């Protein structure tokens, strides 16, 4: 890993980043860039796939809003070799989702230059929009705080629940090519960048960036502290949630207002199946089937199989759930889907000694096995 | 204590090459086992999708028995070992959510183990007798 501290020569942080991205786009390292860019409406940032460097204007790599999980977009762009390299600016949870998607062959890692930016927290899109409309600059407000320590949400807003318990406010270069550090960095004066050895060599040989090997020990310290605090918060939240859902009654209460819109699944970066079984002919039942089930039980909730939808999704992907909370963002009924997935995932991931997003080399647990394992867990004891 | 009229309903997902054939052998050799088991034929225990196990349980089956070949004997090499991971995961999910994980069993029973098959069903039936009826059988709001 190589590091560099760049003193801002441009007016501000965003212009310096834009200059860096412009040089990157002009080099042969990428043919296009995927970067959060201010919408025409002005109150949101969405990922734009950029070819023309002039359109890097109004981008902000740290806008604290995530209307779509970028891993989903990147999967659309690279499920087949796109024929050129794409540089993608993502936050840690998006990068970790990419690691999982690579294992399911939903992205082509070789086609990507992944740039992970420290995440200071994100607002729901409607909250972010409200802040902008009230005249705030949410990105700048957080960046200013990030030098000193943990960032607080705007007094009139709160971060997404997923961000409050996220243990990955920053990544290192083990699963990405480039890291833009913000925690502990005086972003009014400096830009702090880390790159893998290979990427650093590629960037410096093309004069995109020189690596002066200056480090930022403050960032490391701060990230470790925040990580510790988030783990505590996480254990608290998941502990409370566990006692809330540990009975069928708890699950029924949780899902009472579920619309069965499937938005949680559609927006989840890990739910990659082109056709979910719940939207396939397997679940297109005939009238007499419904009537038969109603007869057996006396009555059935319609649309049928709501608990089963959530239980099945848990079984199919919870091991790879990276806790981004897009399911929460997408749910029109404010059901805490992320808390459900993280609570169930916590136990299941520990059982498999698996941490999603940690490494490209660890196979997804469902695709592998050991000769003797999980005998009790699988209900095989009592032989 | 248990209601003598309660006959647990067990759904058995059995692999073609081993347990299903073992169940067949149990029948032809007149081994006695409870009649409350409904058998679903799979080509391999590795072909099990938890969606079917969940459907059985949420519809009110008292227990689900998944049967496959002993390790090393799977016709498709390692389907059974992958199934074991899937079932372990399912039971972990069930445990967190307070659903009775003992309503899912996985067993390796070979084609020649008709006696073991009958014994396993008897054992499971007994275990389910003492657990009582699956409470989900009475839930409409699922
Ligand atoms: S289940 Fe929710 S938190 Fe987990 S990866 Fe999917 S969208 Fe993110
Ligand atoms: S997004 Fe919410 S309402 Fe829609 S299916 Fe998921 S949990 Fe139910
Ligand atoms: S063929 Fe029997 S478990 Fe795979």
Write up this protein.
Chain A has helices spanning 13-26, 70-78, 92-103, 125-133, 138-145, 161-164, 197-205, 217-245, 248-254, 263-267, 287-297, 306-317, 326-330, 337-351, and strands spanning 2-7, 32-38, 45-50, 86-90, 112-117, 178-181, 190-195. Chain A contains 14 helices and 7 strands. In chain A, 39% of the residues lie in helices and 10% in strands. With 142 residues, chain B is of the alpha/beta class. Chain B has a single domain, classed as Rossmann fold (3-Layer(aba) Sandwich). Helix content of chain B is 39%, strand content 16%. Chain B has helices spanning 19-28, 50-58, 79-96, 114-131; strands at 10-15, 37-42, 63-68, 104-108. A 4-stranded parallel β-sheet of chain B has the order 2-1-3-4, sandwiched between helices. In chain B, helix 1 (19-28) crosses helix 4 (114-131). The longest helix of chain B is centred in the middle third of the chain and has 18 residues, at 79-96. Chain B is globular, with a radius of gyration of 15 Å. Classes of the chains: A alpha/beta (383), B alpha/beta (142). Chains A and B meet through helix 9, helix 11, helix 12 and helix 14 of A and helix 2, helix 3 and strand 4 of B. The structure holds iron/sulfur cluster (2 copies) and FE2/S2 (inorganic) cluster. One iron/sulfur cluster binds at residues 268-270, 321-327, 337-338, 341 of chain A.
List low-confidence stretches of chain B. Answer: none
Strand percentage of chain B: 15-25%
Number of domains of chain B: 1
Widest sheet, order of strands of chain B: 2-1-3-4
Q: Which CATH-level-2 architecture of chain B?
A: 3-Layer(aba) Sandwich
Q: Shape of chain A from CA axes?
A: globular
Considering the chains and any ligands shown, give keywords for the structure.
heterodimer, A: alpha/beta, 39% helix, B: 142 residues, alpha/beta, Rossmann fold, binds iron/sulfur cluster
């Amino acid at each position: 890993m190589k590091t560099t501290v760049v003193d801002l020569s441009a007016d501000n942080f965003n212009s310096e980043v834009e200059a860096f991205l412009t040089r990157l786009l002009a080099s042969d390292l990428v043919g296009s860039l995927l970067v959060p860019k201010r919408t025409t409406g002005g109150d949101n940032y969405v990922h734009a796939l950029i070819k023309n460097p002039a359109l890097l204007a109004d981008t902000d790599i740290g806008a604290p809003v995530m209307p779509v999980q970028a891993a989903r977009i990147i999967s659309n762009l690279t499920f087949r070799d796109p024929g050129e390299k794409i540089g993608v600016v993502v936050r840690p949870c998006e990068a970790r989702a990419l690691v999982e998607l690579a294992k399911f062959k939903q992205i082509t890692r070789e086609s990507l230059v992944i740039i992970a930016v420290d995440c200071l927290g994100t607002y729901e899109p409607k909250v972010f929009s409200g802040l902008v409309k009230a005249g705030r600059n949410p990105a700048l407000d957080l960046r200013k705080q990030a030098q000193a320590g943990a960032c607080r949400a705007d007094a009139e807003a709160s971060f997404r629940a997923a961000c409050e318990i996220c243990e990955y406010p920053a990544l290192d270069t083990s699963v990405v090519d480039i890291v833009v550090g913000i925690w502990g960095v005086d972003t009014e004066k400096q830009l702090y960048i880390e790159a893998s050895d290979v990427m650093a060599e590629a960037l410096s040989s093309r004069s995109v960036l020189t690596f002066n090997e200056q480090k930022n020990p403050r960032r490391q310290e701060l990230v470790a502290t925040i990580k510790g605090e988030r783990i505590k918060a996480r254990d608290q939240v998941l502990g409370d949630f566990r006692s809330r859902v540990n009975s069928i009654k708890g699950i029924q209460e949780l899902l009472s207002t579920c619309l069965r819109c499937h938005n949680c699944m559609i927006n989840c970066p890990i739910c990659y199946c082109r056709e979910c079984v719940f939207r396939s002919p397997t679940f297109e039942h005939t009238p007499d089937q419904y009537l038969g089930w109603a007869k057996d039980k006396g009555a059935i909730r319609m649309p049928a199989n709501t608990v089963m939808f959530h239980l099945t999704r848990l079984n199919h992907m919870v091991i790879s759930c990276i806790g981004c909370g897009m399911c929460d963002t997408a749910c029109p009924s404010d059901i805490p889907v992320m808390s459900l997935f993280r609570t169930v995932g916590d136990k299941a991931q520990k059982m498999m000694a698996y941490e999603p997003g940690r490494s490209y080399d660890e196979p997804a647990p469902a695709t592998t096995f050991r000769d003797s394992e999980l005998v009790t867990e699988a209900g095989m004891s009592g032989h | 204590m248990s209601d003598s009229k309660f006959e647990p309903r067990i759904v058995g997902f059995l692999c073609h090459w081993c347990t299903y054939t073992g169940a067949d052998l149990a029948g032809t050799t007149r081994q006695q086992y409870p009649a409350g088991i409904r058998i679903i034929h799979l080509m391999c225990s590795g072909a099990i999708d938890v969606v079917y196990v969940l459907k059985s349980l949420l519809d009110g089956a008292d227990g689900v028995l998944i049967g496959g070949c002993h390790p090393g004997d799977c016709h498709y090499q390692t389907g059974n070992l992958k199934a074991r991971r899937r079932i372990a995961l399912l039971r972990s999910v069930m445990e967190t959510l307070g659903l009775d994980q003992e309503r899912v069993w996985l067993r390796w029973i070979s084609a020649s183990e008709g006696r073991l098959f009958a014994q396993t069903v008897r054992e499971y039936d007994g275990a389910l007798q003492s657990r009582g009826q699956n409470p989900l059988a009475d839930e409409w709001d699922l």
